[in-house]
Amino acid sequence: MTATAERLQITEPGVYDGIPDEVYHALPGLSSTGIKRMLQAPAVYRWHADHPAPPKKTFDFGHAVHARVLGVGLPVAVIPEDLLAANGATSTKAAKAFIAEARAEGKTVLKAEEYAEVAAMADAVLSHPDAGPLLTGAQPEVSILWDDPLAGIRCRGRLDYWHERAGVAVDLKSARSADPQRFARHAVEYGYPEQGAHYQTGTAILTGRAAPRFIHVLVEKEPPHLVSVVELDSDFLAVAYDRVRYAINLYANCEATGRWPGYGDGIHPIQSPAWYRADTLDEMEF
User: Fold this and answer.
1) What is the pTM of this model?
2) For labelling alongside 80, which of 13, 30, 164, 220 has CA 20 to 30 A away?
3) CA 199, CA 193: separation in Å to the nearest integer?
4) Calculated CA dihedral for residues 270, 272, 275, 276, nearest 10 degrees
5) What is the model's pLDDT at position 6?
6) What is the spatial distance between Cα 39 and Cα 51, in angstroms, rounded to a whole number?
7) Are 83 and 153 in contact (CB under 8 A)?
8) Which residues, 6+ apart, have CB-to-CB distance to 35 below 8 Å?
9) CA angle 45, 40, 265 (to 5 degrees)
């Protein structure tokens, strides 16, 4: 089932297109970001839920790349250079007024050189022999809402690009490095395995089909804006599925009890990790 935001009130589980960012983020439901925070500590999740913050300026760049590649999203307002200070800063009264007005209109604001980088990154993605076809010919920014069958918790996700017939979900990432050999560490740091497992679960429940492949398209922020296409293997995702299951069950328990604990009391003994011992022994000479 696919529905547009204009035709339906978004209260029931389903697959929805045409939902603006601000509407999606206001929907109730445990997102992949919420799962990451629950895994850190329930208190972290609760604090962010109770203190929603406006998007950081650093997110504007990523949003602009998404909009340029996917063809949807917030429009971009480029700050005229004659409004900037002599050093290129946005500290002038005129620049601040331009930014405030553009943001009030729901636009992403960038400097001219930033938007040139956005265009170069988008061109690199769309001209890539593997990434380009993955991000064309199907549906961008599809929102999914579902109820977890075990805990009864409402969950949500937003697929950057959805090839429904092929059963492929694509996630576009702006990255410091698109080197596939370095992605595993970055993926764990930013919760990408949990994101993939969460979205796979939701689409499988809603479509009644097998979980889709979840593929990441990475593009580097720095020239020459190298691009790679990566996919976490089944063993990697199996661990993520367990972590997501734990986070959802923990969330349900916290909701039921009204308790959102932190890291726990007492002194926590810390053992040295295997890599610390191995690296130390390799470096020492006897």
Assistant:
1) 0.87
2) 220
3) 10
4) 120
5) 46
6) 18
7) no
8) 191, 194, 198, 243, 244, 247, 248
9) 100
In whole angstroms, give the CA distance from residue 140 to residue 125. Answer: 15
Q: Where are the domains of the chain?
A: 2-257
| Assigned token pair, 245 | 């299951």
Closest CA to 141 of 63, 248, 82: 63
Q: How far apart are CA 241 and CA 201, in angstroms?
A: 9
pLDDT reading at 8 higher than 90: no
Tell me the pLDDT tens digit for each residue of 173-215.
Answer: 999 999 999 999 999 999 999 999 999 999 999 999 999 999 9
2-257 folds as Lambda Exonuclease; Chain A (3.90.320)
Q: Indicate the residue type of 202.
A: G
Q: Which of 141, 143, 138 is nearest to 13 (CA)?
A: 143
